[in-house]
């Protein structure tokens, strides 16, 4: 039966295998990493006739290939593992990067949300390319992987395209509030959804601005992030809550519930060095988790379930990790332990 567009995000090209390569090294499973890289090179085909999300494919597959490549080089230089490795993951990443580039063929430079890995965009057999809108996160979450691909390969086009999309979003911010909307027209640059928050649809746009400064050292990214951050703390942050507002009337709340994706925000606040509000929001989210075992996909300001799904999202775990690294407080190790125990108790099935 039709599953809607869920498979566009899942990809059908061994996404999880690629996405988890670097985790194996972090967890000291170096032999398993070597085996997994061989599996990727042997079995993954990037020329499939599948329509995929440009955003998901970038962060998980392109990012996974580049992360795997970085670690493969590191292990090879240490002299024990990956001695056979010869930039194969980087070549795959470059192949994938060129497959994603046609998505940027718009007047604004904002990418189409979906592309066919075999047929590209707009052709009848591509089954995609008629979209008019994309989310801010979808267009603004490319710079880390695209810049890394450019720096690794010397092909500057990837970084140029990602920067152009970010520049366009920055120009389109609502000037009086310095906030961005959730959805934008990729042809006209008009905001389609004018509500603004730090959750679904915008989240990683903010994350990538700060992390682009960390990775690339470009002050303009930090300046943009700080401008947005001041606006977030002025209008959206209502401690310990983070509530959506209208970009033109930022004193007006746009909804009475929060979504699970905003759980990344305390981690980003730690990266910025703003620890106290990070602790407060994280603790609020943990209370929701204690009440329901998982963070619901959406929940009300009084912690009731608004949407009951939980697709095993990692954002809260990342924020917990950042807070542990910043504070050294063993409380956050206990929180992490609870997350793992809940996953094993309630989410584990025989095949995964």
From TrEMBL:
Name the Pfam families for this protein. Glyco_hydro_47
EC supergroup of this enzyme = hydrolase
Active site located where? 56, 203, 297, 315
Major subcellular site: endoplasmic reticulum
Q: Where does it reside?
A: Endoplasmic reticulum
**What GO molecular functions are on record for this protein?**
calcium ion binding; mannosyl-oligosaccharide 1,2-alpha-mannosidase activity
Q: State the GO CC annotations.
A: endoplasmic reticulum quality control compartment; membrane
Q: Which GO terms describe its biological process?
A: carbohydrate metabolic process; endoplasmic reticulum mannose trimming; response to unfolded protein
Report the EC number(s), separated by commas if there are several: 3.2.1.-
Q: Which UniProt keywords apply?
A: Endoplasmic reticulum, Glycoprotein, Glycosidase, Hydrolase, Unfolded protein response
- Family recorded in the similarity comment: Belongs to the glycosyl hydrolase 47 family.
- Report the protein name in the record: alpha-1,2-Mannosidase
